[in-house]
Amino acid sequence: MSKIIKFYSQNDEYGEFSNFAAYPIVLKKKKWPTSEHYFQAQKFKDVQHQEQIRKANSPMLAARLGRDRKKKQRKDWESVKVNIMYDAVLAKFSQHEDLKQLLLTTGDAMLIEHTSNDSYWGDGGHGRGRNMLGQILMRIREVFKEE
Fold this sequence. Notes:
Blueprint: E1 4-7, E2 25-27, E3 30-32, H1 35-41, H2 47-54, H3 59-66, H4 77-95, H5 97-104, E4 110-113, H6 132-146
Parallel strand pairs: 1-4
Antiparallel strand pairs: 2-3
Helix pairs in contact: 1-2, 1-3, 1-4, 2-3, 4-5, 4-6
């Protein structure tokens, strides 16, 4: 891998890779405004809270609701969150042909969510974060290449 592509804000180049980007997905027989809405809602078993998150009028509000620690988070969250993110991102890029093509145009570039806000899903801003969202995008790109 030679080329590095950094993304974060939906308004920047490759902003489509952000979970806040306005690409609705259909998962679990429901339409979600963004992959962020879906991901945040899956933290909870409480269907009413899931619906509140699904209907949030912005991905920022969905994220805030998903981080509400007054609500009881599902016990297995830490062990399932990566698979849930994978499912959300796969749905997004499978259900929007333009996104799939954009992802494929990145070739074998290293995809990095560049943000100081997150050292797990992103690079932590210093490059030492886990970059799990970037890892998932690269895995999905490989799946698409094999199709």
